[in-house]
Amino acid sequence: MKFYHISVDELPDKTQAQQEIKTILNNIFPIQTAQDIWNEAVLRVSDCSNVYIYDAFYSLKDEKILNILTSKGAHTIPLPKPQQQKEFYHAINPRQEVEAIAQYIIQHDLDADDIIITLASSTYKPLIEQIFKRYEIPYTLLQKNKASIVTQRFVNLIAYALSFDQEDLFACMDAGVFQSEHLDELREYIEIFNCDIFQPFHHLMNVQANGHILDEVEITKLKELEEIAESGRQELCETLSLFIEDDLHQLVTHLLDILHNGMKEASMEDISVLSNIQDVVSSSWNYLNTKDDLAFLLPFIEQISISKSVREIHGVIVGDLKQIIPNRTHHFLVGATQKNYPAFPSESGIFDEIYLRDTTLPDMETRYQYYIAQCEKQLHTNSHLIVSFPLGTYEGKGNEAALEIEEEMKCDPTAFPIMENYEKITQTYIIQPETAKALFVKGHHIKGSISAIERYIHCPYSYFLRYGLSLREPMQHGFDNSYMGTMAHYALETLVDELGKQYTKAAMERIEEIVNQEVEAIAAVFPNNADLMEVIKHRFLVSFAQTLKRLDDFETHSSMGPYLQEYEFHEEFPITEDISFALKGFIDRIDASGNFHCILDYKSSAKSLSEDKVFAALQLQLLTYSIVAKKQLHKDILGAYYISLKNQNIPYIAGKMKRRPVGFVETEKDDYEENILKAHRISGWTMRKDIDMLDDNGSHIIGVSMNKDGIVKARKYYRYETIYEWFISLYRTIGNRMLSGDIACSPDADACTYCAYYEICRFKGFASERKPLVDIDDSLYWEGGVDDADME
C-alpha cells in the first residue's frame, strides 16, 4: 500500500471480513516502515544519468522502480534478441529427461561454457548433479540451499519445550540433540513400554517368566535393556529437568546451550546457521513473555538454511526461471510442464486474489501478463533454445507441456533421443571354504534347526548374516501376531497331556484358565498392553473353540491317538566323511496305533506339501520329522500332515439356481458345516495304504477319499525309502554348498517378505526360482509310480 501510495480509506469494506481487515490496517498503518524511508529517499533523487540498468527478470513492482529511475535519466541496457533455432522434446520421466540432455550435449559436442540450463522445478537439481557427474560434464548451480541439522535441532527443542510430547522427544533424539551413550536403548525401552521418562524404569525387576509364550531368554534381554535404559534416563533427565524452567529467558538460554554443546565438530556452515538462529532469538528477546510466544519463532527458525552462493563459475550454468543469462548460445529449459511453468505466483491467505480484486493494487491479470512477458524475455535471449518436459512422474501420473510453451514453440514435441544400455550387475557373494568352515562348523558339525537349513535355501546371504555373522534379529515386543499360534500350540499340548484323545471335549473353564495364565504373564511384562491383551484373549477363545470343534470331528474318525508331544530330537545327516548336519528340533505331535506312527505338525495357517518345493529343500521340516521318528521310534510311518489352526473365512451362500426345473435351492446348514470341514482338512503325504486308521471315511485329509466300494484310498502313496534316500542326498548337497562358501544374495520369491536383513542387503533384483536338487521319478511312489497311485 505504501509503495503504491494507497491510503486505508481506499480499502474495500463491503463484507465483515473486509471491514475487520481495514480496522486492523488503520491501526498499524502509521507505524514507520522501510518503505516510508524508501519513498522519502526517492523524492531526493534527482539526476540518474550515470545509472545504467541491466535488463533482467523483473516483477511488476521492480518495473515501477525502474520507471522512476528512467524518468530521472537512467539508461537501460537491453537484452540481445538473436535469430533463434528451437527444438521441442519430451521424455518418459524427469530422470530420462536429464539423461537425454547429457547425451545431447556430448553427441553434439557442445561447449559446456556455452550452455545455460533453466530448471522449471528445483526437484531437478539432484538429477543434474548425479547425471552430469556421471557423464563428467562440468556445471555450476547458481544457488544451492540445503536444510541444516542445526536448524532442525533447535526447532525440535522448541517443540518439545512447548509440548513435552514423546514424539517431539524422539525427534530431538533422532536429530542428535542430546549427547548420551545410551540413547538408543532409552528410546527402545520407551517405545516398548510407553513410559514416562521422568519416572524410574524398574517394573521388570521382580517379573518372573512364569508363562510359556515369553521365554526366559526374552525376559532376561528386556531386563538388561531396562538397566541400560535407566542409566540413559537418569543422564538425560538432568538436561530435561531444565525444560521446566519458569523463567522463559532462562529456558531459551538453556535451549541455545544444548544446541551449542552439540556442535563441537561443527562446520563453518553450521556455525553460520547457529549465528543466524541467535540473531532471530536476539531480535525477539524483549518480546518473549510466555512459552507460547516461542511458537511464533518457529516459522522464522525453519526458514534458516545453508545457502551456498557461487564464487566461481565453470561449465554449464544451471539456474531457475527468474535468472536471465545472455551471451551463451545454447539454452535448455527443463521440466516445462503445466504444473511447473510458468509458475505464476498468485496471492493467497488474508490478502488473496479475491481481496486484491477490490483494491487499486495491480490485479492478477495485469501481474500475470507482465510475468509472462518476463518469461518470454528469458526464452528469446539465446540463439539456440531446447525445451523439454517429462510425459509422466515416477508414480505414473501423466504430464502435459505448459500451454505457454506450446504457443511459444509452435510445433509438436518429439521424443528426446536417448541411448539406453542397461547391463545386469551381478555381485558375487562368496567366502573362502576355510572361512565358511570356521563360521559354520563347530566340532565337526553344522548345528541348527531344519528351518535354518530352509533359510539357507531361501537366501544363502540371509543365512550367512544370521548364522555366520550371528547378527541378531530385533526382539518381538508385546503380543505379536505369531504368538496366537504359540498360544494355540501350548493350549493343545496342555489339554492333550491332561485328557489324551478326549482333549477336544475340554471344559471351557479349563481352557480359559490356561489362557488367563499366559495373558497375565504377558501383561506383567507389558502392562501398557493390558487392555489389548483382554481383546486378544477374547478373540483367541472364540477361535480356539471353533478349532476344537473341527478337531473333534477329526479325532472321532481316527483310530490313532496322541503318543508323543513336543518330541525333542537330535539327528545327524552326513555331509562329508568328517562333517555332518547336527539337527535339533521338536515334533509337535506323533499319533500312534499298533505298529504305525503318524506325524502331525500344527501350523498357524493353511499349508500344503509340494513335491517341487520339498525336493528343492524349501519344505524339509515335515518329512525330516518322518525320518527322525522312523529311525528313533522304530515304527512304520503312516503319513506326515499339517494341521492348520487358523479358522478360514467360509462364505455362507444363501443358495443356488438350478436349470431343470428352474428354481432356487436354499443352502442347508449341514451343507455349510460340510464346507467348513472340507476347507479345514489336514494336508500332507500318505506313505501307507492303511490310511483308514487316520481317516475312516476319507473326508478329513486332502487327497484321501472313500470310493463307491467303501474303501478309503489316497490319490498318491509316497515311498518312505525313496524319501529317506533323496533327503540324505539333499542334505549332503546343501552342506557342500555351505562349505564351499556359497552365500549368494539370490533370494527366492518368498525370502524377502519377512526378512529382518532386507535393509542391509538392499536386494533390488528379480527373485530366483528354486528347482529340485534331485531328479524326481516314479520311484517316489508305491507300486510303479504316480499313475498307479493316482485315484480316478
Residue-averaged pLDDT: 89
* Unreliable segments of 5+ consecutive residues: 784-792
In percent, how helical is the residue content? 40-55%
| Percent of sequence in beta strands | 5-15%
What is the count of distinct domains? 4
Protein name: PD-(D/E)XK nuclease family protein
GO molecular function: ATP binding; DNA binding; exonuclease activity; helicase activity
Pfam families: PDDEXK_1
Keywords: ATP-binding, DNA damage, DNA repair, DNA-binding, Exonuclease, Helicase, Hydrolase, Nuclease, Nucleotide-binding
Task: Give the SSE map.
Blueprint: H1 16-28, H2 34-44, E1 52-54, H3 60-71, E2 75-77, E3 85-91, H4 94-107, E4 115-119, H5 125-134, E5 139-141, E6 143-146, H6 149-163, H7 166-174, H8 183-193, H9 216-240, H10 248-261, H11 268-284, H12 294-302, E7 306-309, E8 316-320, E9 330-334, H13 353-357, H14 364-379, E10 384-390, H15 403-409, E11 414-415, H16 433-440, E12 445-448, H17 450-458, H18 460-468, H19 482-499, H20 508-525, H21 530-556, E13 561-574, E14 580-593, E15 596-603, H22 611-615, H23 621-633, E16 636-644, E17 655-658, E18 663-666, H24 669-679, E19 683-686, E20 704-706, E21 712-714, H25 720-740, H26 758-761, H27 786-789
Parallel strand pairs: 1-2, 3-10, 3-11, 4-8, 4-9, 5-8, 9-10, 12-14, 15-16
Antiparallel strand pairs: 6-7, 13-14, 14-15, 16-19, 17-18, 20-21
Helix pairs in contact: 4-5, 6-7, 6-11, 6-12, 8-9, 17-18, 19-20, 20-21
